[in-house]
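Checked the freezer inventory, then went back to the computational side. Two predictions to log before the end of the day. The first one is the construct we discussed on Monday; recording sequence and tokens without edits.
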Amino acid sequence: MTEKVERPNYYAIIPASVRYDNNLPGKASLLYGEITALCNQKGYCWASDSYFANLYGVSKQTIQNWLKALENNGHIVREVIYEEGTQKILHRYIKILVYPTQNNLHTPTQNNLGVNNTSINTTVNNTSNKKHSAANATPLVQLKKDFEEIWKEYPNKQDKGRAFNHYKAWRKKSVNHNNAYLFERLRLYKKHLAANPWKSPMNGSTWFNGRFTDDYELTSSGNSSNNTAPQTREDWFG
């Protein structure tokens, strides 16, 4: 029986990193947009290869090739849930990885998966560690992209290699460890440096080795009224 194709009435997101990725074949970028629409509707994308094949009028093999390309290039991650003790697939879901879209989409949980597939309610095994698994599953290519975004804003570009290793280890500890948090910490650190111009920025590898959690003094240590620090992101990064 052919799976019914329903076009969701939700907006799709195709960021520049996907639109201009020359490594993506065919309509893979459009497929990415469809995935974001489904993620915004339910909190995750559960659609099968047959669904997408019918939607775009191509073979399931073509869809598999597009999904593989999206995953290999760090735009999505696929996770499969098996029936406990077997290799029978109960559910597959797709998560968007490209920052910042991932912060606007919901990560699937045991509960919302159960709402849409009742057979999963009593057969999914070890889902309590899913958040930690998702963090560890972030592809290296995506971690590199995310790191480059914040590295280009850091004022002391020394020991980039070690800085990335620290960043990578920190990111893989939790899905809550993301660039949104680091950009806020960097904004505060730059504000601290502006208020204390006698201080030099830390070596890049030092700051990324957990020093971004420091408490920063945001007022000038001097008496000059000319030490007013910029207040907006544009002032800092513009």
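The second is the one RB wanted added to the comparison set:
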Amino acid sequence: MLDSTKSAVRPPNAPADHPKVAAGKVGVLLANLGTPDNYDYWSMRRYLNEFLSDRRVIDYSPWLWQPLLQLVILTKRPFSSGEAYKSIWNEDKGESPLMTITKDQTAKIARAMEAAHGDEVMVDFCMRYGNPSTRSKVREMVAAGCRKILFFPLYPHYAGATSATANDQFFRALMEEKWQPTVRTVDPYYEHPLYIDALARSIERAYGQMETRPDILVCSYHGVPKRYLLEGDPYHCQCAKTTRLLKERLGWEDTEITTTFQSRFGPEEWLKPYTVEEVARLASEGGKKNIAVCAPAFSADCIETLEEINEEIKESFEEAGGEQFTYIPCLNDDDAHIAALTAVIEENLGGWIGQPAVATP
């Protein structure tokens, strides 16, 4: 973290009582979904309340949704969700795996940016839900002299419930700044060649370590209600394209890879096929007794991959007669992934690096 007091100076020709202004920097603020502070009931309740109260995530009328959320869901779900988080918690560091991985990603990207641009670029991360908050990190960057901020939601694919709500929160934070910095947001990178290559290399590496090649690779993406697709959300199409590009990069046939969607919530229809049902069908009807599963929509392993895929989805496959289930981890802080993310950042910083970042008042 930059110390804004070290680089703060009084503008030239300003009166003696003029406040000091931090030297110009370019900020790169990475954003991920979020994590509870702990897996106890109240930590889980605070986190789930913030998450499930987001109208981008649950867009039902608050008059109907909030009583159900506050009086029913949040009295029970913190217990079950807490147990799930407890099963994957990084006890050594006292944090969730998503937090650990995001810190590692940020550190590696920061080192890459420092090697390329010295101290001109400040790299940090925030969470849409929980801590560190988007608001707190925007405040820190502005205080450190960042007059330009690139906001990078770490979602390869755009969805209203992920990228859009992260951007919403970023702009809310900017509303509180007296002197707003110039900002940019990063487009989804689901078809970026380096991202596809990093995915392919992780698959090739995993397959190379197996004694028997899986019958099929299941690309399991986080689901959204089907209604969102019909209302114009491009998420489904972007996921399908990632699978196609991955297949082409690997040189595989259509029968060797498939697209599914996980994490369904609530009574309405979501994007299909549902991963938990499809893996069972592959085992019982499709004769696919040996499968591998990856999660291309997640930039870091989290509760949906480490617990849902490795436990619930695996169990569904095995109960249907499946024999060999392999989960291929997310790209996390893999060097090829960091190179891809850094390339996306560099592309989006065009015209900013080396340019005057502060106009003297």
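For RB: The CA atoms of residues 153 and 163 lie 6 Å apart. Confidence is low (pLDDT under 50) at residues 1-5, 355-361. Let me know if you want it refolded.
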